[in-house]
Amino acid sequence: MLARRSISRALRAPKLRQSHYGLRHQHDSTAPRKSARRPGVFSFVIFGGVAYGAGYYLNKKPDDKIDAVDHTQTAAAQRGPAHTLDSATALIRAAEESRTFGNPRTTGGHFHSTHLASNSPIEDRSDVLDAMDAGWQLWGVYDGHAGWATADLLQHNLPASVVEALKNVPGEAPPESLDETVKRVFTDFDAAILDPAAAVIQDGTPDQRAASVGTLAPALAGSCALLAIFSPVEQSLRVACVGDSRAVLGRAGSGTDALTTIHLSEDQTGFNASERARIEAAHPGESPIDPKEGRILGIAVSRAFGDSRFKWTSALQTAAKERYWGFKARPAADTPPYLTAEPVITSTKVERGDFLILASDGLWDNMRSEDAVKCVAQWREAKRTGKLRQNWQQRAETGSEEKEFVGEWKATSEHFVFEDDNAATCLVKNALGGRRRGLFTGVMSLPSSLSRDARDDITVQVIFFDDEAGSK
Ligand SMILES: *[C@@H]1O[C@H](CO)[C@@H](O)[C@H](O)[C@H]1NC(C)=O
What we know:
This protein is an alpha+beta fold and about 475 residues long. It has a single domain, classed as 4-Layer Sandwich (Phosphatase 2c, domain 1), CATH 3.60.40.10. The protein contains 16 helices and 15 strands. The chain binds 2-acetamido-2-deoxy-beta-D-glucopyranose (NAG).
């Protein structure tokens, strides 16, 4: 169960975006992607029009002010950032983290992470929790949609709630009871988001509206959760997945050729046959999934936290809309809930040399799991041999670009570049073009929300369980 403090922190946090734009669905990832473009262009046109009008007026007016206006600067301010290789790299490096963690069986583990925003502000959250006093080390990635309110709440509270619950599982309990405990924490957590919000809709009074909106925000928004729970003593790794963030284990074997990619989670979308069967079976005669789009009543993920639109009755949603600016209820959604926050859990024994990649779908949109594993393995080798710094010192500002059309690029190893000291930064840069500098600096220069058509928010964590090369 959530501590009271956690809830009140969440109450303080959210600010609903529509107050800025009057456009509720601007950052709604459940809406078709194309619509994300409109408000950006729209406000650009408005802003451009106002700027043009002001310029026209000042030009016409014969007074001293004309000389004071630097039109080249006004125009520059309206353009995007026009990144160079160095400034685009600096942007990814700005969010880097690197730290060690205890691993009694080995020399210790090493953790690298970073994130890159496409939404403004970013809707991804992530964290590390060192709970070695209880025997656990946790890493989490939370990819929010329709805002960051749910993801933020998860980041601050979910891992600690899991640790508290695991402490109460007796040492001799079978592994399945650990899984059951984690599942229960996840679904209880979701109830702790939704139930107080439903109560507020029913019982809240107009003079409490500000606080009520805060309680509602994490129920109206939604988030995926990907939580890795590692026991250094047992060398056991559990990954609990809700949504379409992905955990991939790289196993070195002997030499790079023996490299294997082990999926520790499956993307939970309407494209997954077992997810589709589960949902169809729960809603006979309704067909809530569009098989072409892989979406459940419009949303791309088949499991999520929050997202009351897919969990509440139409009557409750209508009340939320009338009293608290909630969403319009989906038509023909008569048998909620359509989404669950129950995770799918995998368990793995960690072997010497293994590394784990956790990332939001922003990475996987442009990079296959096998390529990500290959990238990290090659990064580790470049780090070990001191090539990273050398490559960065000798970096080239331009690279070979094979295509004019960039819309559907994929990150493949022939374009990989190894010049960043942080493995997560290396993955992000390579997912966004790598050695193709024109692609990389171009896609990095797209301002929000135009960027959303080209790249999603990206969060990457890389965990080297026992890696000398990962450390300094
Ligand atoms: C669908 O998801 C389930 C549960 O995570 C997984 O076992 C299965 O392999 C997935 N199927 C495909 C085709 O990815």
